[in-house]
Specification:
Layout (H helix, E strand, L loop, with lengths): L1 H14 L8 E6 L1 E5 L11 E2 L8 E6 L15 E2 L1 H5 L12 H29 L2 H14 L7 E4 L8 E5 L5 E3 L5 E5 L2 E2 L4 H19 L4 E2 L9 E2 L43 H16 L4 E4 L2 E7 L4 H11 L3 H13 L11 E10 L2 E11 H15 L17 H6 L11 H12 L6 H17 L7 H18 L1
Parallel strand pairs: 2-9
Antiparallel strand pairs: 1-4, 2-3, 5-9, 6-7, 7-8, 9-10, 11-12, 13-14, 14-15, 15-16
């Protein structure tokens, strides 16, 4: 159910622009080649995108599905110096091995040919005047040794030679292996909807060709039969406790995990599109402030199947449950105030993740209606109430904040065990009763701090609120 829910979320998120379409990727572009419709350069040089970070500006660019390991594969409408101009970025670097040198030259030529082949095919299909201008530009610069805005020279005395780019304002800038793209009459080609639609079709053809080499089977997520199954899944990044390079939710790397002679992820067959859906969805949720609550080595992810207002509401209730927010929340379900979004038929999903080196650990999964989640939240805050909440000048975080409640059970936040926030999260959303063992930790902390700080320690409202909730819910269970 988790992967199916993530698969559905991905469809909505891509439609709403929250997650990048599969055919496109976020990449940085520094240099724009500004052209007129006749293919001539507009101005005296290239324009430069603002350096948000090194490498230029982040754009949504076409992404090829073809493997680049063997070389000779270029991107569509944007790429490097080798692909666009068939030039060596390090002109002075000569490979002493003749066979390797010949291979480098051949690979650079193949990449260059592949780059312009794609543009020619796109022009044949779309007859776009913008692509015609780009092809005319190619014909113009191929008659020269190098384009007029590129030269291999020394910028300052004493420095090594490098490629210098002449900019539109007449300055000379060092080239540092950044990417190039085209503008025609001021419009980026990769932002033109006709060309983006062309690329979606080309990308689908590439994927179909790639998937044709894979084994076919039944996808456990979509339920579709005779579809290409992915042998390996991309890494999920940002999971606490997992490797920085990412971790796998589904992987089979030992013989003991395999059945019926199947290797790799064929043991748990998921189609390429479903893999892309769940991996991209989790990566998005883990990076989204509105859909993620991180406590220690645990990430709590939540979303709704229709509205983005629902996770915003729950994020506020978990992280900033101040007096005004709680008052509005406690009244809204019964009075129909505008505080709550339209929730008729809305489904709420949540997964609690942790990491164990290269693997993602699912600690809890829940699915319920938003209405039920709200009712349980109402009981949660009702059970936590100990006194009328008061605001103090030194209170930066409300005492019912989920992190403070979990933190109240230990001496230091680094000592927090992953199951503690998971228990409290379930208590809030599922009306679950936390373990009485949590009460022991709370009482131990109260005793230690009372001996150390005296009455001052009694101002920690989170401890007493949580203690009340634990005891009352366990007593109700007995009765």
């Amino acid at each position: 159910m988790l992967l199916q829910a993530l698969n559905e979320f991905y469809g909505r998120a891509t439609r709403d622009g929250l997650i990048q379409e599969a055919a496109f990727t976020g990449k940085y572009i520094r240099w724009n080649i500004p052209l007129k419709l006749d293919g001539s350069l507009e101005g005296i040089g290239l324009t430069e995108n603002p350096k948000i970070i090194n490498g230029g500006r982040l754009f949504s660019l076409p992404k090829t599905e073809r493997k680049k390991v063997a070389g000779g594969v270029a991107e569509f409408l944007w790429d490097s110096l080798e692909a666009v101009f068939c030039l060596n970025p390090d002109f002075d670097s000569v490979e002493p091995n003749e066979r390797k040198l010949a291979s480098q030259i051949a690979n650079r030529k193949a990449k260059f040919d592949d780059f312009w082949r794609q543009i020619e095919e796109a022009f044949t299909e779309t007859n776009s005047p913008m692509l015609k201008a780009v092809l005319q530009f190619r014909d113009n610069f191929q008659s020269l040794e190098t384009p007029e805005f590129l030269r291999w020279a020394v910028l300052k005395e004493g420095e090594n030679p490098c490629w210098l780019i002449k900019t539109a304002n007449g300055t000379q800038e060092k080239f540092k292996t950044e990417n190039f793209t085209f503008q025609v009459n001021g419009e980026f080609l990769f932002e033109n909807e006709e060309l983006r639609q062309f690329w979606r079709k080309s990308f689908a053809d590439e994927r179909s060709s790639s998937e044709g080499e894979s084994k076919k089977g039944l996808c456990l997520v979509s339920g579709k039969s005779d579809v290409a199954i992915s042998a390996s899944h991309p890494k999920i990044k940002g999971v606490p406790g997992a490797l920085a390079m990412g971790a796998s939710l589904i992987s089979f790397d030992k013989d003991s995990f395999r059945s019926y002679g199947l290797e790799k992820n064929y043991n748990s067959p998921v189609s390429f599109s479903a893999v892309e859906s769940y991996v991209n969805s989790l990566n998005y949720l883990l990076s989204s402030q509105r859909n993620r609550l991180k406590i220690g080595d645990t990430s709590l992810l939540y979303w709704a199947n229709k509205s983005d207002d629902v996770p915003d509401m729950f994020a506020q209730l978990f992280e900033q449950p101040d007096e005004k927010t709680l008052e509005n929340f406690m009244k809204a379900p019964f009075r129909g105030d505008d505080f709550l979004p339209e929730i008729e038929g809305e489904q709420f999903f949540s997964v609690t993740l942790g990491g164990n080196a290269g693997r993602v650990v699912v600690r809890n999964w829940m699915q319920m209606t938003v209405s039920d989640a709200i009712k349980n939240f109402d009981k949660w805050f009702e059970d936590l109430q100990i006194i009328k909440m008061r605001s103090h000048d030194n209170d930066k975080i409300p005492p019912f904040n989920l992190f403070l409640l979990a933190r109240a059970t230990v001496r230091d936040a680094k000592d927090l065990r992953p199951e503690v926030p998971t228990q409290l999260y379930r208590a809030a959303l599922e009306n679950h009763k936390p373990s009485l063992l949590l009460a022991k930790g709370l009482l131990d902390r109260i005793a230690v701090d009372l001996a150390k700080d005296g009455k001052k320690s009694l101002t920690n409202l989170s401890r007493f609120a949580l203690l009340k909730l634990i005891i009352n819910r366990n007593e109700k269970e007995k009765s």
